[in-house]
Amino acid sequence: MNIFLSKAVLDFFIAFGIVLGGSLLGGIGAVVSLQPPTHTMLDIADRIKIWALAAAVGGTIDPMRVIESNMLGGNLSPAIKQILYLVFAFLGAHMGSELVKWVCGK
């Protein structure tokens, strides 16, 4: 259980960091290119959320294959773990997006 929890927390913070870091660096890029940074940051936070989720769980389609093969094989425990990893990564990406919205005043 300790390994599962540590990977779940790691997935959360990876997704959170991707959204937050990408938005902040995009805002810096917007300032350099003389565009409104808040609008750019909000747009990037919404668009990068799905990519943060994919990167946090491994960056490939392998987690979906694990879910499919284990569900069809009758092993529910590995499938449930993969689903929970996806949920933790989604929560991290969503929290990052909400933090960017809060910082930008929306």
Automatic annotation (TrEMBL):
Pfam families: Spore_YtrH (PF14034). Keywords: Membrane, Transmembrane, Transmembrane helix. InterPro entries: Spore_YtrH. The chain crosses the membrane at residues 12-32, 83-104. This is Sporulation protein.
